[in-house]
Amino acid sequence: MVVSRTVSRKLLIAAGASLATVGLLAGCAAGTPTDTGTETGGGESTGGNDETGDTVVIGFSGPAADHGWLGAINSAAIAEAAKYPDIELKVAEGTNDANLQISQVETFVNEGVDAIVLLPTDGAALTEAAIAAMEAGVPVVNVDREFSSPFAARTTILGDNYGMGVSAGTYICEQLGDNPDAVIAEIAGIDSLPLTQDRTQGFNDALADCGLSVSNRVAADFTVAGGEAVTSQLLSAAPQIDAIWNHDDDQGIGVLAAIAAAGRDEFFMVGGAGSANAMREIQSGESVLQATVIYPSTQAADGIRLARLIAQGKVMSDLVEAAVPARIVLYAPVVTAENVEEFLPTAFES
After folding, report:
1. Domain 161-295+332-346 falls in which CATH fold?
2. Residue 235 half-sphere exposure, CB side, CA atoms within 13 Å?
3. Are 252 and 260 in contact (CB under 8 A)?
4. pTM above 0.90, yes or no
């Protein structure tokens, strides 16, 4: 069943805010049941969600692909939609212009799409446009950068920025926790962004748990040039370092260049995001880069899958409360030489 354009604002708002109410919307139709399917309050648990159903039109608006991770977000979403013959995907031009993205959302609504997957260039700026889409009966799947209102999305899917910091800090604690005088450095992204603040907070909290703290901190701008420049400053200011956490593997290319130019190798480094080039550095065993923390570039691809389920009135098969959740936060695992082969095939290129 395709979600009707006449679904009321009240129902869609409730769907985004309460899993119990979500069951009334998403549970109205299920995929082909398996022999072990069981009835639940949220619908029927099924194993047939991948079977072709009614064709649904999904609008996708993402960022400009000016960063390896962002490019991977877009390409993964398009590739995921191509796997399903019952998805017609409308892709808006990637943009960092909030006003242009607002107009893209409005166009999707006017064209009568069945769902929208949106990674907003600015969550707050896109909130009203997303609310308007929801009011028009078009469910919105919010990816990565959150809207400022719970009424703006049926489902939100996020990477775990705080969890990235926790994972990085925990790994460093495992390596250096018996050295209370260890010198820890941090190379952040853009400090004004909540995601950077969350990563730093998680990192500090994890280090504090084993009695360590950050001694030297700089912030770059998620670019190669920015990473190289601030790392040069950091290395000049800190003659001895035991470990570095760099928030982003794209800027990490510049970070590693600065480290090589300085001839420093007395420390190990942990990266962030999980790029393929970072994983190859880890795999080589010849780099200061010893680990990286995943920030999944599959978020929009997952958003496409969830939008399909919602628009077709299907439910999730692996939950007792089978309705598509209102909020999903993806795990932030640590990749090391021991498990890099597991993660490398799906890593993005910087």
Report:
1. Rossmann fold (3.40.50)
2. 19
3. no
4. no
Cα separations in angstroms, 86 against 57, 107, 114: 9, 21, 12
CA proximity to 69, closest of 339, 230, 298: 298
Indicate the residue type of 170. T
Cα pseudo-dihedral 10, 325, 308, 60, rounded to 10: 80
Residue 134 has pLDDT above 70, yes or no: yes
Given a cut of 50, is residue 255 above it in pLDDT? yes
SS3 64: coil
Helix (H) or strand (E) segment spanning residue 245? strand 243-246
Q: Where in the chain is the domain with CATH 3.40.50.2300?
A: 9-157+298-319, 161-295+332-346
Whether 44 contacts 34, CB under 8 Å: no
In angstroms, the CA 80 to CA 83 distance is 5
Q: Which CATH architecture has domain 9-157+298-319?
A: 3-Layer(aba) Sandwich (3.40)
Calpha distance 206→189 (Å, rounded)? 19
Q: What are the start-end ranges of the E strands in 166-237?
A: 184-188, 214-219
